[in-house]
Amino acid sequence: MGKGAYGLVHKVIRSDNNIVYAAKVHLKSKGVGGYDEAVNEAKKLGSYSHKNLVKLIESFDQMLGGIKTHVIILEYCNGIDSEVQTLS
């Protein structure tokens, strides 16, 4: 779905219920935007509940290809354009 400076966002389907989610995968690295910031982002998202924010489903650490990552599972917003739009 997208790529950032510190990781990727994938469209995923949970196998036990076939619900679509967005999985934000951060590689373990120190500094701004890295692993520690991803963990903090998940904690903050988990404490918010607002109609204009995506809902945090879960977050966890996972080894991918021998690299420790932090994965944030978010509700999937179908039909939302990822490009920035200017409203007039």
Short description:
This protein is 15% helix and 40% strand. With 88 residues, the protein is mostly beta strands. The chain has a single domain (2-75), classed as Phosphorylase Kinase, domain 1.
Radius of gyration: 14 Å
Number of helices: 1
Extract low-pLDDT stretches.
83-88
Name the beta content range.
Answer: 35-45%
- Biggest sheet strand line-up: 1-2-3-5-4
CATH class: Alpha Beta
Relevant CATH superfamily: Phosphorylase Kinase, domain 1
- The SS-based structural class is mainly beta
Q: Which fold name is given in CATH as the topology?
A: Phosphorylase Kinase, domain 1
- Tally of extended strands? 5
| Mean pLDDT level | 77
- How far from one another are the termini? 27 Å
Give the biggest sheet.
5 strands, antiparallel
Spell the H/E element sequence.
EEEHEE
> What is the domain total for the residues?
1
Question: Mind explaining what this structure looks like?
Answer:
- With 88 residues, the protein is mostly beta strands.
- The protein has a single domain (2-75), classed as Phosphorylase Kinase, domain 1.
- The chain has one helix and five strands, in the order βββαββ.
- It has one helix at residues 35-47, and strands at residues 2-3, 7-13, 20-27, 56-64, 67-75.
- Strands 1-2-3-5-4 form a five-stranded antiparallel sheet, with helices on one face.
- The longest helix is centred in the middle third of the chain and has 13 residues, at 35-47.
- The two termini are 27 Å apart.
- Mean pLDDT is 77; it is low at 83-88.
